[in-house]
Amino acid sequence: MTSLAQIILKFGMSSPEVARTLSGGIRLSGAVSVLLHPLVISGLVLYFVAALVWLLVLSKVDVSLAYPFVGLGLVVTMALAWAFLGEAVTTVRIVGTLLIAAGVALLAVH
Length: 110
Fold this sequence. Notes:
The protein is an all-alpha fold and 110 residues long. The chain folds into 2 domains: 1-60; 61-110. It contains 7 helices and no strands. Helix 1 runs antiparallel to helix 4 and helix 1 (2-13) packs parallel to helix 6. The longest helix has 23 residues, at 38-60. The two termini are 25 Å apart.
């Protein structure tokens, strides 16, 4: 969920409306305008829902086991950014992300 929230927030923050608002510098009225953009609101709501799910997870699982799985968000976010935003996926990014995934897998089987 947090990975999808990142992608939605990126779309919102890359929108022409937000770019115009931020081009004049950051002001309170501009910040409010950005926060009221539908995609920014959607991304923030999804983050909030993810936080609620995280609280449920923490009520059931040791944090030392659960937290490393947050690292999988890096893998998912990279894949979504490549698929939906056309971001470059370099060899260094792939190797780094696979190392994180390997670490999570090691913790999961322990």
